[in-house]
Each structure stands twice: as C-alpha cells, then as structure tokens.
Design goal:
The complex is a heterodimer of chains A (about 260) and B (about 130). Chain A is α+β, with helices and mostly antiparallel strands and about 260 residues long. In chain A, about 30% of the residues lie in helices and about 15% in strands. Chain A has one domain: 2-Layer Sandwich (Alpha-Beta Plaits), CATH 3.30.70. In chain A, strands 9-2-11-10 form a 4-stranded mixed β-sheet. In chain A, strands 3-4 form a two-stranded antiparallel sheet. Chain A starts with a helix and ends with a strand. Chain B is mainly α and about 130 residues long. The N and C termini of chain B lie far apart (about 75 Å). In chain B, strand 1 and strand 2 form a beta hairpin. Classes of the chains: A alpha+beta (about 260), B mainly alpha (about 130). Chains A and B meet through strand 1 of A and helix 4 and strand 1 of B. Strand 1 of chain A pairs antiparallel with strand 1 of chain B, so a sheet runs across the interface.
Amino acid sequence: MESSRRRFIKMAGIAAVGLSAHPAIKAVAAAPEHGPQYTLKTGDQALQAKQWAMVIDTRRLKTDHDLEPLIEACHKTHNVPHFTEKNHEIKWIWETHFHNAFPGNTSNYMSEEVEHRPYLVLCNHCQNPPCVRACPTKATFKRDSDGVVMMDMHRCIGCRFCMAACPYGSRSFNFKDPLLGLNEKEINLTFPRRMKGVVEKCNFCVERLAVGQRPACVEASGGALLFGDLTDPDSEVRHALRENFTIRRKPSLGTEPCVYYIV
Amino acid sequence: MNDKKWIVLGLILFVGLFSFPFWFNVGKAAPAPEVVLTEQAKAAKECVMPTDFMKTEHMQLLDVWRLKVVRDGVSQFVNADGKEFDMSLSNTCLDCHSNKAEFCDRCHNYASVNPYCWDCHIDNPKGDK
C-alpha cells in the first residue's frame, strides 16, 4: 500500500475522532452495576496481631487435674469428639510426657519433678509450617493477617499429607463421623462440627479472637497460659519470654513454633 | 420394498417409547415450592440483602462469606442500608430461618440440589426442635 502524507493525515484524523468519542461510549457502555451493594469488614472488637503466640508456664500446671479443665474447655468449645479407641482419637490440645514433647531436650538425671510433669501440647502455629507446604488443595494455610495456621474444612480432601508433614502430631483425621463421639446435648451450637474424612486441629480460637475473646484454654488456665502478639515487644508473651527461660518443641527442624514452654 | 409397514410400525414404536417421559408426565409438573418464614424472619422484613437478590444469589453470597471468614478473617457484613451482620450460616442465617425443613429444604429438594452445609453447620442453632 502506498504511503503518502495525504493518507497519514486522513488516518490521524480518524483516530482523533475515535478517541474523542471514547468518553461518550464509556458513559453509555458502563451501565449501572446491579451487583451486590455491600461491604465487608473485620469486627470492631476483633483482637489483632501480626503473629499470635502462646507461652505455657508448665511450672503452674503440675498435675493432670490442672490440665483437664483446659482441655475440656477447648474440646467443648469446638465440638471435638471423644473416641476411646486410640486410632480414632481427635486431639486439639492434649497432655504428653516430657520426652515425647521435647525429644531433643532430655538429659540424664533430670529433675524428677520436671520430667514427670504433664506437658500441654497443641498445634504450634509455626512460622514456617510444613503442613501448609504439604497440602495439595491449600485447605490448610497460614493466615497472612495474624499468622494462625488454619484449616478450611470446605477444601480438605482428607489426603492426610499434612498429618505426615506435621512433626508434632497436632493433626487428627476423622475416620468416623465425629457426631458419634459427641454428646448430642453438649454440642456447642454456635461452632460447626466436622464431617467424616477431614483433618482437624487447634485453630488458636480464631472464632473467639474475631469477637475479642482470648482462646478458651488461655481463659480457663487462670494465667498459666499466656497469649499475645509475638511481634509486639510490649505483649504479654514477649514479657514472659524476656523474663523466663523458655524452650520450644523440636526447634532444630526449623519450623519456628509459636508455642513456648517455661520449664 | 415390502417392508414399508414394518418400518412405519417400528418408527411409531420408537417415537412412542422415546417420548414416553414427556407424555407420561404431562400435566403432572410439581408445583413450585412455597417457603415458610418464621415469625422472626417475618418481623425482620428484609434479609441481609433484598429478597430478590437472596432468592437468586444466596449461594454466591454464602460462598463469599465462607471465603472471607475462613480465609481472610473478615467477619462482618454491612449491607446497603448500613446494617451490620455477623457472617455466619449457623448464627446469622439460621438464627432467623430456624426452620430448615420448611425454608431451605423445600427449594433445594425441588431443584434437586444437595448442599453439604449441614454436614457440619448445625441447622438449628437455638436448639428448639
């Protein structure tokens, strides 16, 4: 095609007309949206943090009797079923021995009192959670807003990769319908149950944090469990960490657990 | 060329059998379901969104709710009138619509949809059964 000055000016003119028509076309084309007219926001009372963490003062939890109400509070709040058969057990928070909780930290001739204390264990809400990397559907994920490692039961396909990946055994699989292990009368109606075939674990009580309450176990502990923002130097947990010697479970694995133990 | 009557007979039989479900069910269309509102729902007059929107879009809205609550930790819903709601199927929706059998199920059964919400979410948070 022959290019000439005349042709170039013609084309430029057409383009200018086209551009000038743009606002008019846009005004007509952008019909008022009939879409949803709503907004979403976080609750006014919601507790917020960059990374939630817990400090467990094991010196104050000496016997099974001290731990029982905490475990009970959690399992009642979250409709955690009770199965006596070991294979079907569902655990969010439970007690274990020192050598199970801290396998790398055992020593010879330890203080018997320390060694035989019951230790409260739960999901560590790791800063580098291996379960999250293992999940093929992103059903388990680390929440950006506050660092809680969460389960989206709607997405869990029950592959149990996360259970294999978690070095703390913090996850349980529902081999049975959890309703079978619940007392119908004691179900917390405001919190969902789970169904057969999904993995569950401690959720750091996100549903309570959202309405400004601290986790159920912390509230039931009478001060033996501390909860707060790990990134805030003035938080309860940071004070406790500064003033006490604390250990974490299997720190050598590099998962950066957020549950600390004062021993 | 003498098979004409067999072919016609076969065709009639085929068409008859093929269209069996249509003429068998003529005039037997199930009536559209009628949902029952609880007293509480009637008193509230309007749901979290206008009724027409809720009728056609409640599933999308619930999907947004579950995504936002579970994954983003956003828990409050503010509608066009500025009214605030807790985004919760059990605690907000089913608090008003506590008659799942007469409200949710009627339409769901009619449309032959089987949502798995109630496998986990309690269908009657107030427990009045």
